[in-house]
């Protein structure tokens, strides 16, 4: 019985990051997949003063499952770094090291209450309410990558209450997903490549250990994650655009903002409480936003008159902009002519140690 033939597929994605209008980044990724070969070319740039730090950055990766190696491309230097896939012995050693580190981290957790009691007391002043999760399927439609997509939203709301002052800040984690019910060409081929790549790296055999480790440190969020996953599971379709948002506000959080804005920034302590820090940041952001008359399309709708003030802290969007199943030239999965190899840097074999004195 012959395996089904795989088609070539090329996808283009865009990304944008807006951190309160202070840090703005934009980027795009072109991914080409053909059987057991895949190439990704990415570039991003920053706006405003951040452009002095990150400017325009280009990266590339070519994964060759058939050759058991990966090439990391450095377009600015016209060079590449070749990394062979790990051997079974190397994978076993890495898994043992990960387990040893997890065991030491658990020992650190057992020692933590005695060593860092003051820090624990500070964080305990912020009371977090049980999260409220809301899933909404809207009637908003748009065309993305040539497909009709419908907007759905998943919001988790939590309040942080300062037990000393009574200040309350509401935190909203939002996920907007534009889903299409159309069949997306090449989806099965990309998934087949991902499965083959994971198997080649030996990640399938280690998945149980990885999941177990994650569950140890996410146990306190297990209930929330389970509820969120269950409700989000009702949303059907292929995601063509996804936006994650985090916003803060609330009437009482605004009052705390007004009082803290009267103090000089330098007089604020480095520790503080989550609510105080949030309200101070909120004050600066609201002042910055109110000075601009141009609406930001990434911002949520303005609050109605008399409603508690809120502001968006961060928004991150990923969107599929194009999908093509035309044949991909074989040279796209080869090293560019004239590029020079780089020597890998020696790895530092450091042992994990518990933090001391709360650091």
Give the gist of this structure.
By secondary structure, the protein is of the alpha+beta class.
Task: Name the descriptors.
single chain, 359 residues, alpha+beta, 7 helices, 29% helix, 36% strand, globular
Number of discrete domains: 1
Structural class: alpha+beta
Secondary structure: helix percent: 25-40%
Q: What composes the largest sheet?
A: 13 strands, mixed
- The share of residues in extended strands comes to 35-45%
Shape descriptor: globular
Q: Which runs of at least 5 residues are low in confidence (pLDDT < 50)?
A: 114-123, 258-306
Radius of gyration: 24 Å
Number of helices: 7
Mean pLDDT, all residues: 76
Topology as H/E string?
Answer: EEEEEEHHEEEEHHHEHHEE
End-to-end Cα distance, whole Å, is 60 Å
Number of DSSP-assigned strands: 13
Please describe what this structure looks like.
With 359 residues, the chain is α+β, with helices and mostly antiparallel strands. The chain has one domain. 29% of the residues lie in helices and 36% in strands. It is built from 7 helices and 13 strands. Strands 1, 2, 3, 4, 5, 6, 7, 8, 9, 10, 11, 12 and 13 form a 13-stranded mixed β-sheet that branches. A hairpin with a 2-residue loop joins strand 2 (23-34) and strand 3. Helix 6 crosses helix 7 (274-290). The radius of gyration is 24 Å and the shape is globular. The chain starts with 8 loop residues before the first strand and ends in an 18-residue tail after the last strand. 15% of the residues are buried.
């Amino acid at each position: 019985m012959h395996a089904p033939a795989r088609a070539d597929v090329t996808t283009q994605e865009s990304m944008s990051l807006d951190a309160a209008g202070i840090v703005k980044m934009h980027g795009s990724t072109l991914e080409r997949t053909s059987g057991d070969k895949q190439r990704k070319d990415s570039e991003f740039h920053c706006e405003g003063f951040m452009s002095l730090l990150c400017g325009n950055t280009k990266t590339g990766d070519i994964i060759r499952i058939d050759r058991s190696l990966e090439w990391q491309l450095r377009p600015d230097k016209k060079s590449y770094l070749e990394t062979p896939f790990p051997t079974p012995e190397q994978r076993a050693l890495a898994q043992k090291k990960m387990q040893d580190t997890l065991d030491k981290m658990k020992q650190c957790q057992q020692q933590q209450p005695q060593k860092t009691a003051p820090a624990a007391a500070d964080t305990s002043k912020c009371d977090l309410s049980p999260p409220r999760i809301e899933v909404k399927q809207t009637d908003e439609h748009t065309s993305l990558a040539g497909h009709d997509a419908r907007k759905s939203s998943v919001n988790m709301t939590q309040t942080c209450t300062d037990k000393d002052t009574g200040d309350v800040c509401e935190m909203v984690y939002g996920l907007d997903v534009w889903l299409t019910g159309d069949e997306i060409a090449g989806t099965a081929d990309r998934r087949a490549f991902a499965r083959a790549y994971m198997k080649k790296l030996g990640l399938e055999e280690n998945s149980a250990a990885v999941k177990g480790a994650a569950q140890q440190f996410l146990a306190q969020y297990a209930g929330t994650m389970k509820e969120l996953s269950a409700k989000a599971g009702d949303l059907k379709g292929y995601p063509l655009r996804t936006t994650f948002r985090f916003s803060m506000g609330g009437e009482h959080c605004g009052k705390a903002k007004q009082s803290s804005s009267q103090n000089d920034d330098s007089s604020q302590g480095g520790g503080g409480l989550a609510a105080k820090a949030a309200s101070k940041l909120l004050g600066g952001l609201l002042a910055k936003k109110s000075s601009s008359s141009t609406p930001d399309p990434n911002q949520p709708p303005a609050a109605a008159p008399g409603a508690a003030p809120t502001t968006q802290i961060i928004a991150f969007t990923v969107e599929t902009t194009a999908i093509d199943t035309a044949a991909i030239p074989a040279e796209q999965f080869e090293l560019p002519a004239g590029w020079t190899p780089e020597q890998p840097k020696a790895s530092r074999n450091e042992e994990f140690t518990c933090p001391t004195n709360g650091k």
